[in-house]
Specification:
about 30% strand; 6 helices; about 210 residues
Length: about 210
Amino acid sequence: MLFETIVVGPLGVNCFILGDKQSKEGMVVDPGADCDIILATVAQFGINVKYIVNTHGHFDHMGCNRRLKEKTGAPLLAHKEDLNFLVHASRSATKYGLTVEDSPEPDLFLTDGMQLQLGARVIEVLHTPGHTQGGCCLYLANEKLVLTGDTLFADSVGRTDLPGGNHDQLITSIRTKLMALPDDTIVWPGHGPSSTIGQERRFNPYLND
């Protein structure tokens, strides 16, 4: 599998580019900013973007949605509960002194248990509300990795003091959906360094209170 992390935008979002070497089908996850760099990496990999996916609707994770759709023709996928964040992203960004283009509406809504395919590779959608009501993680069992968006970080969890956030719900999502994964599953969060499920199970202070 082709796999690349690009840290984009002033808030340091981890944008992920995944691709299947045989089929050349690819996916861009959380294209928050720096569209030219993302598109250049897609071209370097020689993949055809099959999906553009937002793990949640916050403005720092979706600033290139419109441009990527226009350049690749790929459908945009996000959870319906975060639709309002996506289409009003510019309004949210101005509160932080930043400028972001509103996202188009998703072509397809993510749902819990949905399976996306890149060639023979299967990506399972895990709905993990708490950071936002539409927060989702993407699990690749064969590759032993999970993209957790802003649900779970290395030694931390997503903030829940923003609209739609709920701390108890977030912890429940992590315990029931993510802590059910094998310990050697690599955690790739929406910001910051990677970890593993086992590491977070044992040492994450928010899960061991």
